[in-house]
Structure formats: C-alpha cells, structure tokens
Amino acid sequence: MSLLHLPTEEKENEEEIEEILTRLPAKSLMRFKSVSKLWSSLICSQYFTKRFQRLSSSSPRLYMNLSFFDNSHLKDALLSASPRSDSGNTISSFEADQDLTIPAMRGYYHVSQVFHGLMCLMNEKSAKIYNTTTRQLVVLPDMEESSIIPEDHKYKKIMYHICHDPVHDQNKVVCTVSKTREKSYRGGDVSRRGWRKVPCQCPLHMTLTQGLTINGCLYSLAWIHLPDSVLVSFDVSSEEISVHQVPKDAEWPHGDLIEYGEKLAILEFSRLQREGKTKLWVMEDAMKNRCSKKTMDLHPSQLNLLKMHIGDNMSLRVQGTTRKGEVILVPRVKSKTDYRPGVVMMEPQIRAFFYIFLYDLQKNDMRKVEIKETPNRYLTNTCDIAGFDGVENLMYL
C-alpha cells in the first residue's frame, strides 16, 4: 500500500500505519514526523523506537573525522561511509555518502565511541552524546564541576563509555577518572543526565582502552602495577566491578580487546606488520580466567601488501569488528613522544589515509579496503576512523 493512499481515519488504522512505518528507513521517518501529531507521537514513542531498532536491517556504516583547509581555515567534518560489496557479499570499499556535521558539535570532533547509533564526542575532559540518526546532540554534565572529583586532582585521565543495561533496558554512560594509578568509576543514565558515584572495591587502577560491551558487561584493559595489564569488568546492570588477570603476552599496548564469536577476546598484533604473526586469546569464561589461545601467520602475499602500505614510522590500531567478525585495522603514524621507556604511544592519524585493513581471523585472511568519495579529499589534513556501527536509533535523548 502506498503512503499516499492511507485511509483518512488515522486513529482507526494506527496499527496499519505502524506496520508500514517500521519498514521505512530512518531518514524517511524523520521527515514523516511532520505529517501529523499522531505520526509524530508514534515515531517518537519508546515502543516504536525499540520495535524499529529490533526490526531494522540497515547496513553498518564506517564513521570518520576529517580535518581540511578551506580558504586557509582549518575545518572539521564528521562523515559516515556505507559499504560497497562484491558479488560474494564481501565489503570491497566504503563510500562516504553522509555528512553528519552540525554546528552544535563545534569543538567536539574527537569521537571516543560509536555504540548502537549513539556517538560520544569529546573536547578534552567534557563530552556530548550525539544520535547519528536523529542528529540530536546533548551535553553531559561537566565531570570537572561535580563534587565527585576532589579539587586537588589536577592531573587526571577522563574516559567516557556508552553501554546498554539489558536488565532495565537503559542506555548508560560510564565515566572513568584516573590519576596515575588511582581510579574511580562514575555511572550515569543517558536519559536522566546525572552523575552518581559507583563504589569500587577493586585495587586502584588506570584505564587504558576504550570500553567494549559484550552481553551486558563493559570490559577494558587497565594498569594496577606497571607494566602488567589487567582486565576490568563492569556489570552494566548490577554495576559491580571486578578485576581479572590477562595472559602475559596479551598485555597492553601489544594487545587490544575485540569481540570474537560473541565472546570477549584479546588480539596481540605487535608482530603483525613485521612478521605477519598474531595471537588470539578467547575468553571462554572471563570471570574464571579461562581462555583458549590461537596463533596465526599471514600468507606472504598479504604480509607484503601490509608492508607496502605500513612503513616503519606507522602502525595499526584496532577499531572494532564488522558484523562478519573481521577486525578493523586503521593505519596511523607513530608519535615521537613515549609514555614510558620502551613503549611507543600512538596518536590519531596525523595525515590522511583513505583506507583500512579488514582481518578475518576465522579464515586468517586480510585485505585492504579503500574509502572513496570523501569531500575535500586533496585538502584533507587528517582522517581518523572513529568507529563501525550498524544501528539506526530513533531514541530521543
């Protein structure tokens, strides 16, 4: 049935309208809110939002930050790119076809995370949550001005993590605050926009990696005693925090967290670009420190491809996985500033690389994937991959 031939008595046909609307793309739904009050209230309702997210079959998208010169002025842009597939339904390239930049995000172009259609934008120690579908942007309460952090904490590392509470069906933002080896957790419900302190009985530790949510738990790597890393688990529903050991060879920065077959895993890839070697620890039971180990060697032709595009002054950064479980590896230039002796810390890309690598760990297969059709391509100063996400979220923040 065409939308132009809907019955005039809308209230009597609300179920039929709802069924049709759930099959439309989110971009169309944003326009159709202006059709009538009934349609607007339906599309914005919590029931419809959850049903649409459950039934939506939108393609996953790659999100990126660009900095480019326009009339001698440096400008920023937030883009998303849709995948282009070959005959075998394998991603062959990405095409930047959406500009998500809005004036209200000025100064907040560092994307720390993309999660279920919600994006966390940071400006040093403050943050905003951006809905990539509705283009709504909300400011999180300033952690610096809260009574949670003592005033004498001058040197601190603040990180924000978006996660979902499956028991109470809520989106939450977890903020971790570290000072050298001290750390505390802060939890906040996105809809209530308030911070509250979450008690932590674990040893003091410093968060190192962006949180990864799997099956209702938020995981990150942290330091308790240098140089040994630990795995920190935060149950999003009960808000309980626990610390677990990680394999010796899987310590940060040589290893990073990924999702592998719906399980938490640590990928150690420090020898990947030189020798084509990786190690994978799959946490069969993270709470009991039970894991299985897998080692892989790239085919010589794929290792040569990697060496062609990743020079000695460059490295690779893990930026999540695709729906097929392929690890997204982003090229970047090494920073000259070391955090501690023997460890080279990496900064976001300081030049534009319009490609990524997708590594299929199941098949031990790697390929280079181009990013096409970016605006101001030849004027771009930096291009940093922010995340990969396949959810269109109609949620009102």
Describe the overall structure.
The protein is mainly beta and 397 residues long. Helices cover 12% and strands 48% of the residues. The chain contains 6 helices and 26 strands. Strands 1, 2, 3, 21, 22, 23, 24, 25 and 26 form a 9-stranded mixed β-sheet that branches. Strands 12, 13, 14, 15 and 16 form a 5-stranded antiparallel β-sheet that branches. The longest helix has 10 residues, at 46-55. The chain is globular. Mean pLDDT is 81; it is low at 1-8 and 337-348.
Q: In this structure, how is the largest beta sheet organized?
A: 9 strands, mixed
User: Uncertain segments of ≥5 residues (pLDDT<50)?
Assistant: 1-8, 337-348
Helical stretch count? 6
Number of strands: 26
Question: Which strand-content bin applies to the residues?
Answer: over 45%
The average pLDDT value, as a whole number, equals 81
Span between N and C termini? Answer: 32 Å
Shape: globular
Helix content: 10-25%
- Taking all Cα atoms into account, the compactness measure Rg is 22 Å
SS-based class: mainly beta
Task: Sum this structure up briefly.
By secondary structure, the protein is mainly beta.
